[in-house]
Design brief:
26% of the residues lie in helices and 24% in strands. The chain is α/β, with parallel strands linked by helices and 272 residues long. The protein folds into two domains: 121 residues, Dihydrofolate Reductase, subunit A; 105 residues, Dihydrofolate Reductase, subunit A (3-Layer(aba) Sandwich), CATH 3.40.430. The chain has a ten-stranded mixed sheet, with helices on both faces. Strands 9-10 form a two-stranded antiparallel ribbon. A hairpin with a 2-residue loop joins strand 11 and strand 12. It is globular, with a radius of gyration of 18 Å. About 8% of the residues have low confidence. The protein binds NADP nicotinamide-adenine-dinucleotide phosphate. The site of NADP nicotinamide-adenine-dinucleotide phosphate has 31 residues, from strand 2, strand 3, helix 3 and helix 8. NADP nicotinamide-adenine-dinucleotide phosphate binds next to strand 2, strand 3, helix 3 and helix 8.
């Protein structure tokens, strides 16, 4: 992988590159969103993101996980991508311990329905218990079922109050949040002004995404990760546009086998 910006370099230390600029000490929540998109805006092929990825993208995926305190994911993605607990190699666990982090970051799933597979590895694996973030008005029996295998936090009513959820994670010592999508959750985070950073991999492919550059026009600065193509290709839609565009500033640009890796920071004053 080579760097194109801010300074050209033939070899890049991914850990160093992506650890730089993260607020130290965990004194406030830091939310980083990691997504991959085709050049025309598709975030899934045949319903899953794997078809877009490459070696460099998979490497970056694991590096970002190795740096975070918690992996945040929407229930839709957890279901479709069959989410598991995070795997961290022993040597990386040691590095994390030396930084004062837990050896393995837990996964936190945002859900309204609580319709999750409680028998899956995500909830039954040997790693840290998965956190379930659900609205306070979730039926008691659903919460009870979840509590058997997960740490449950109820925040908000009707939908999860993401500002309160991120603050609660921070209170638990989980200050560095890595959100791995999907677009519904991303859009809600952006609407709540919670996105500090977007790591966007541009896959050198065209997937024919309605709303993308080929079919229907570009969606604006946040459209790349709001557009999606459904599994069967028959239903294409995008989330509600944000009330306000979220401006982003390019921090770095890397390249590997024609994949482009953009690291973009929210161009707004840091949260207090
Ligand atoms: N290209 C990429 O990098 C990438 C990354 C991730 C996902 N994807 C793709 O994205 C697609 C899934 O998209 P999606 O929009 O359905 O994913 P999503 O955002 O992961 O899931 C949406 C679901 O998350 C829950 N949710 C989100 N925000 C909530 C809130 N504020 N309060 C309560 N619940 C909330 C709800 O769960 P309930 O339904 O349980 O109520 C909602 O239906 C898949 O095709 C996946 O492959 C691509």
């Amino acid at each position: 992988m080579r760097a194109l910006l801010p300074e050209p370099a033939d070899l890049v230390d991914l850990v160093e590159t992506y650890a730089s600029g993260i607020p130290g000490g965990g004194d406030r929540p830091f939310v980083r969103v990691n997504m991959i998109s085709s050049l025309d805006g598709a975030i899934a092929v045949a319903g899953r993101s794997a078809g877009l990825g490459g070696g460099g993208d998979r490497l970056l995926f694991h590096v970002l996980r190795s740096l975070c305190d918690v992996v945040l994911v929407g229930a839709g993605t957890a279901r479709v991508e069959r989410y598991r607990q995070v795997h961290v190699p022993p040597e990386v666990q040691e590095v994390r311990r030396s930084r004062g982090q837990a050896p393995v970051p837990p996964v936190a799933v945002v859900t309204q329905s609580c319709n999750l597979d409680w028998s899956s590895e995500l909830f039954r694996g040997p790693g840290p218990r998965t956190i379930v973030l659900a609205p306070g008005n979730t039926p008691a029996d659903a919460l009870q079922q979840a509590r058997v295998v997960a740490d449950v936090m109820t925040v908000g009513a009707g939908a999860v109050d993401l500002t309160a959820a991120v603050a609660s994670l921070h209170d638990m010592g989980l200050a560095h949040v890595l959100c791995e999508g999907g677009p519904t959750l991303n859009t809600s985070l952006a609407a709540a002004n919670l996105v500090d950073e977007l790591c966007l991999t541009l896959s050198p492919q065209l997937a024919g995404c309605v709303g993308g550059v080929l079919l229907g026009g570009w969606l604006g600065s946040t459209g790349v990760w709001m557009a999606r193509t459904e599994a069967d290709g028959t239903r294409n839609f995008r989330s509600q546009p944000l009330a306000q565009l979220v401006p982003l500033r390019l921090v770095s640009l890397l390249e590997d086998e024609s994949y482009l890796f953009l690291r973009l920071a929210a161009a707004r004053p840091p949260q207090g």
